[in-house]
Design brief:
12 strands; Purple Acid Phosphatase, chain A, domain 2; globular; four-stranded antiparallel beta sheet; alpha/beta; about 425 residues
């Protein structure tokens, strides 16, 4: 049985009484109503945009003038709170003046007239760093370990190995720039109880650590490349909500906050371009290659035989179908989330900086070394060199656990 709708007369009576008597307590007492009923009627009145009747206020009465001022101040506060949207946060709190959610692809990424003898443009896909998390070697057979010190060491290895690999291909480093997509899950976050209990750092101190590390990384890359382009999307671990929001996904995520601070840090450097769209996908081009960057948590499923490929390929198919209907086709999809390095013709799945962990071990997933994806896009031939960057190579040579054996005795079988 549905509740009776409050009449306009009773709603107006509630708002008038509150204005006349200076608050809900006295108004409820005068009208002989429980305060909860009074509050419900006021909510109804405000939802209908009702205001106190003009005849209630006598301009010569100081009490009425005081109430008028109070009501106006309350409305002003509500308006100011409503206006504090994500754009305002970027401008007033972070101090970022440039628009980072609107894509302006740098010319150096689109110049197909570039010499075909040049190697092209490198892309280093960075995602699934899970900074702040702890992986204990004793709980996963000694095949991996992770903490903030190891995280920083792997970032150094990532940078050094990337430069070394690219210098092998082009000793003079004849690259127009480098694309560094930030694909989300940069922080471990507190989305699970076990992470809240075992993380080395809380999320906000981790964001500050990441800000320093990525700022250093960008400055080091500038020593080797004339330009850097950083498209950014959020992951699922950085969220501050119980479940992932479809609305305002980025603005409820610490990844987005980190990207905003980084964009502010390098705002005046014309060699660096950030692109942080409001939605879960980032679209950009490298020469004629149309790229879609997403985190990958939208894709679910898989089984023991086909693993992650099933949900990823199904997800790619759905995205291509959706995008074709609105003329937003793409050639290659980039994603992380699955912590498995997979490089196919139409999609590239990133590994993780964290590497193998207790979750993967308990669920019998195949071992994966901590890896980030690196490749070159040629202006004529598209993607050519594919170079996974192993950020902790010694983990690929784990000592085998000896099996217990019983020596044979003489005459034994």
């Amino acid at each position: 049985m549905s509740a009776h709708r409050l009449s306009d007369e009773l709603a107006q009576q509630a708002i008038d009484a509150c204005a006349q008597y200076g608050g809900t307590y006295k108004a409820a007492a005068v009208l002989h109503l429980p305060r909860s009923t009074m509050m419900n009627r006021l909510v109804e009145a405000r939802e209908r945009n009702l205001t106190p009747s003009p005849h209630l206020f006598d301009k010569s009465n100081p009490k009425h003038l005081s109430e008028t001022i109070r009501q106006l101040e309350k409305q002003l506060a509500a308006e100011q709170k409503a206006s504090l949207d994500h754009a305002t946060i970027r401008r007033r709190i972070i101090g970022l003046q440039k628009s980072i959610e609107t894509l302006e692809i740098p010319d150096w990424m689109l110049d197909v007239r570039a010499s075909t003898s040049a190697p092209g443009t490198p892309t280093l896909l960075c995602s699934d760093w899970h900074a702040g998390e702890v992986v204990k070697a004793s709980q996963i057979g000694g095949v991996n370990r992770y903490n903030m010190d190891i995280f920083k060491a792997r970032i150094q290895t990532l940078l050094e190995s990337t430069i070394k690999l690219l210098r092998i291909i082009s000793p003079k480093m004849e690259y127009p720039g480098i694309v560094v997509p930030l694909g989300g899950d940069m922080v471990s976050g507190n989305i699970h109880e076990e992470l809240r209990t075992t993380n080395e750092l809380e999320t906000m101190p981790t964001v500050i650590e990441l800000y320093g590390v990525i700022s250093w990384m960008i400055e080091e890359l500038l020593k080797h490349f004339p330009h850097i382009f950083l498209p950014c999307v959020s992951g699922n671990h950085g969220r501050n909500t119980l479940k992932i929001w479809n609305k305002d996904r980025h603005h409820t995520n610490f990844d987005w906050l980190l990207y905003g601070f980084l964009a502010k840090r390098f705002e005046d450097n014309s060699r660096i371009t950030f692109f942080v769209p409001d939605g879960p996908d980032a679209y950009y081009r490298v020469y004629d290659q149309r790229i879609l960057l997403t985190h990958g948590d939208q894709f679910r499923g898989g089984d023991g035989m086909i693993g992650a490929l099933g949900p990823i390929i199904r997800g790619d198919h759905k995205k291509r179908s959706r995008n074709a209907q609105v003329k937003m086709e793409y050639d290659i999809m980039l994603l992380g989330h699955w912590h498995q390095y997979i490089h196919l013709t139409r999609l590239i799945v990133n590994g993780s900086l964290k590497g193998y962990d207790e979750y993967a071990y308990a669920n019998n997933f195949p071992f994966e070394s901590p890896t980030q994806a690196l490749w070159l896009t040629h202006p004529k031939y598209g993607i050519t060199y594919r170079m996974p960057v192993y950020v902790d190579p010694k983990l690929r040579a784990v000592e085998k656990t000896p099996w217990v054996s019983v020596p044979r005795t003489k005459g034994g079988a």
